[in-house]
Amino acid sequence: MSNAEDAARRRRRTGPPPRLTLDTPVTYLKGVGPARAESLQRLGIRVAGDLLRHVPHRYEDASTVTPISDAAVGADVTVLGQVVATGVLPTRRGLRVFQAVIKDASGLLELAWPGQPFLERTISKGDWLLCTGQVRFHHGRRLQPREFVNLGAGDESSLEGRVLAVYPATEGLSVRWLRTLVEQHLSDLLPLVKEPLPAALLAEAGVPPLPEALRRVHKPESVADARLGRSRLAWEELLCVHLLHRRANVLARESRTGVQFANRKQLTRQLREALPFTLTNAQMRAVREIVGDLCSARRMHRLLQGDVGSGKTIVALFSAMLAMENGYQCAIMAPTELLAEQHALTAQKLLAPLGISPVLLTGRLGAKDRRVALTRMASVDPVLAIGTHALFQNDVAFAKLGLVIIDEQHRFGVEQRAALGAKGADGEPPDVLLMTATPIPRSLALTLYGDLDVSTLDERPPGRQPVTTAHRREAARDRVFSFVNTELDAGRQAYVVYPVIEASEKTDLRDATSMYEALVAGPFASRRVALLHGRLPAEERDVIMRAFRDGAIDVLVATTVIEVGIDVPNATVMIIEHPERFGLSQLHQLRGRVGRGAEQSYCILLGDVGSDAADRLQVVVNTEDGFEISRADLRMRGMGDLFGARQSGLPAFRIADPIADEALNNSARESAERMLTADPALERPENAGVRQLLTINYKRALELFQVG
Predict the structure, then answer these.
(1) How far apart (Å, rounded) are the C-alpha atoms in residues 538 and 545?
(2) What CATH number has the domain bearing residue 153?
(3) Distance between CA 559 and CA 574 in Å, rounded?
(4) Per-residue pLDDT at 476 exceeds 50
């Protein structure tokens, strides 16, 4: 910082503080210096108004006060008492403990704060303390407060319990300090808050106005009061996301001047007649929905979701044939070279009777093969191109790209998908079909993807046997690996999956590297065993996976790098060690690597786990329904990055939880639909606040949603 800037800053800080507004920098707030301002920035708090949006993540219900004489050892209580003695005592280990004794009309109780001797400066005799925590026995009854509030030396008759807000904190800022900072400025900030939403809309939703909601959130009279305030903030967040989706979708539809395909029933009929199997009802339904989109006047933007093995690839091929019989090109993009090759092999086999040979474009193609592929794609002839991210590189030019199909779409970033979309015919975005093997509940799909139409494959193709899944304790380890050897003796193959690559001092977990050596020297001494993990060079990983696919490897010891893999029909057993370290949906995805052929397959979750984890694993043991597993996983773990939200440009919900807040979510979606039906551009005066909300808080999201 220059001397002039430093002097100006000193003048600002020594002059009279500015009038408090929502935009006042936090450095002007009492008790906030440069260090604390920097810590507040890590929490997203830069101006005074940000304090109001820093919502507690839980509450301590200290509203019901227990008389000190009734505070029994082992009980979790809230007590209110006046400090009659304080002191700091050292322990044998050098830890300094601040202690206080409080008194109410019924008796005395000792309080202790290990490692917090500084409290001696803020807690004095005569202060009234409201404390919540568990009573323990230590030379008598002692309470080590989980939360406490110093109510000062006021009149006892005016003191009472309260609900304590517990805020997300960061290094250098305690929960208590944040609570005090909010309480100091709440009464001044709330009158400055303007309600952005129409009163009629709030009344329909049954949520309070924003100023009242913020008061309930930060200074609730009860836990139910806090919940009602939070529901208003969550509902507003969900409403904005649904409005964004629909506005982006309207803009995308209005901007389309592209092709309207005709259902000529030429290649599509030939493909159906050539299939060696019958489509499931779910596949036929999905094909009809996609054909309807492609033949409409608007650009298709559809998500095809279904479990591993539900038959998404054949649905994609029907979509490709419709584009090609209209004289257009189609591109199928996969996240890995092996998966792209697998799609190409499947397409080659199924389309051979039609005289169609797909073009494969991946990074490992030689210069000659790459030139041939690029030449075919640059010609005006209909072509099916299958590849990886190599499809959207600068030197790739499609002459007439009309349809893009993206497999495992959440593994590609928005910019990557946009780059491929920019290669459409005559510069127009092509129709888009996204595919995912991570099935999610419809209510969540509508929230994450808005008006992105969703087709679901919820049937298993005939001939596929369910995978037998079991959880086995550590005591059964030898029997488990003996069973694997029985399968190997029958000519089958197996996976053994670990959560980490190498051992760590921080965790007591079996790892892939050391267990590979142990398995080679132990139960699989006579087998062909390979190790596969994410730190291996991509080329080496491909060589290993190809060898496993071709039967040159009996047992593949791996990490989750196989989660999105290739079909190995001969692999019938998967052992997953430390299954409690994986999410339920991830376990389900891993299990999908076996059961790809006609033989009975098995997935064994191996290891001792606690009772809660055992109950969680039973969800995977008891069902193969990916939707049920996904819903359970979301309930238990939250959304996290399960659907690649960070990659795909989806908003990170700060308050709302689309699963837990399902009723609020449905209400917000219905309100968004009514608003845009009545005022598509949100131009009416009563919607000015909503328009400003979207512009300020969600501008980047609106741009990304238009990409999909």
Answers:
(1) 11
(2) 2.40.50.140
(3) 12
(4) yes
